[in-house]
Amino acid sequence: MKTDMPLSKPIRRFINTTEELLDTEISLLRQPDAEPGGTLVDVYSYEIDRNVIIFPAQYVGLLKDFIIAKHCTHLMIKGAAAKKGTYHVCSYTGDSVYRGMRQIYLDALKDEAGKKNKLPVQKLIQMLFLLYSHFNEDINELPWNAIINASVYHRMSKIRKTQLYNVMKESKNDMDEMIDQEEIIPRRYFVLNKAMFYARDMFLAKTLPADELMPVLNIPQMKKFNHLEVKEMLTTRWTHTAWYQSKVFGDNMLEIMEKPLSLVNWNADPTLDYYYDLYKVGVNLSDRLLSYMTMKDWYVWESPQHLLEAHENKGLYEKDAVKKIFGDLVTDTWGGS
Q1: Which candidate, 81, 89, 75, places its Cα nearest to that of 304?
Q2: 3-class DSSP state for residue 137?
Q3: Are 300 and 92 in contact (CB under 8 A)?
Q4: Residues 203, 144: Cα–Cα separation, whole Å
Q5: What is the pTM of this model?
Q6: Residue 98's domain spans which residues?
Q7: Cα–Cα distances in Å, from 266 out to 8, 53, 82, 254?
Q8: 116 and 62 fall within a common domain
Q9: Cys-Cys crosslink for 162: which of 62, 82, 145, 180, Cβ 3.0 to 4.6 Å?
């Protein structure tokens, strides 16, 4: 481990365990402009020779420990997958981008048909790949977020209160996504986005456990549904709102999440096999969520390098998909993103 910063004994042991398990080295780096949740730059995702955990310079004490523990756990899952099998992520190709964008377009047409203020065609076209990319990011983050938080909670008991504070902040930020776009994007995708994070929060609320994480308590738009049974909800004027639908879809997603996660022994010995099993649970959970959202053919399981190359080619993929969907209706001057 390369660092001069003071570390508590528990987190130092956790880092040492990670390094020994993976036969690797971890460097810690403070940066004033780092992401609030920290960033893991690792040898399994990038062509580099060391793992670096980056976190905000102002983080100290238990908050710093939690961020480090979270990324060490993620590193062990990635490393175990790479050593025991093959580490893959949800990537995309030109064909899969076309399938996803085409479905979003068809759903957008249904929404637009019932609107008085139609979305300009150019903005509608630009929205297609933005939404597609957004769900790619979510599916590569959300299932692992739930697994990592559950694992840290069971293995690092001294930082649980700090973990709850951090998860609550993260939850509120996630739920704020797309709020200002609610009237623009197709209802289906607003609902699915909120439902994913609702399910994640409900699972963590049961696991951590913490009432403060309950979406029906800390999300203003969902407070209306607290203590209401579905039958009662059906009699209210909220039945047809996007937020009510998010709760219904979210409850279904929670059930999907709980099935594979309920089988995990969170206190098992932290071996390579154990973390490889967590990786397989995450892949299984991702596939289940994609199937439920009818997005199974939108993405492909490929290497992290494949995803990096896909990001480099995303402008070309988007442009080709737009031409396939709209044909001559879109001029060649449209340049994509």
Answers
A1: 89
A2: helix
A3: yes
A4: 13
A5: 0.88
A6: 90-140+268-337
A7: 23, 23, 21, 19
A8: no
A9: 62
pLDDT of 95 over the 90 cut:
yes
The predicted pLDDT at position 148 comes to 97
Contacts 24+ apart (CB under 8 A), 172-178: 172/218, 172/219, 174/200, 175/215, 175/219, 178/134
As for how many domains the chain has, the answer is 3
Check if the beta carbon of residue 197 is closer than 8 Å to that of residue 222: no
Residue with tokens 């064909």: 95
227 φψ region: left (φ > 0), alpha (ψ -120 to 50), beta (else): left
Same domain, 193 and 247: yes
Between CA 28 and CA 40 the distance in angstroms is 10
Residues 6+ apart with CB under 8 A from 80: 21, 22, 272, 273, 274, 275, 276, 278, 279
- Closest to 187 measured CA to CA, from 291, 295, 110: 110
Instruction: State how far the alpha carbon of 288 is from the alpha carbons of 37, 85, 165, 181, 226, in Å.
Output: 26, 21, 29, 27, 27
Q: Within this chain, do residues 221 and 292 fall inside the same structural domain, yes or no?
A: no
**206, 287: one domain:** no
Separation of alpha carbons 297 and 95, rounded Å:
9
In a domain, 316, yes or no: yes
pLDDT digits (tens, 9 = 90+) for 51-65: 999 999 999 999 999
pLDDT in tens, 3-47: 778 889 999 999 999 999 999 999 999 999 999 999 999 999 999
The Cα–Cα gap between 233 and 238 comes to 7
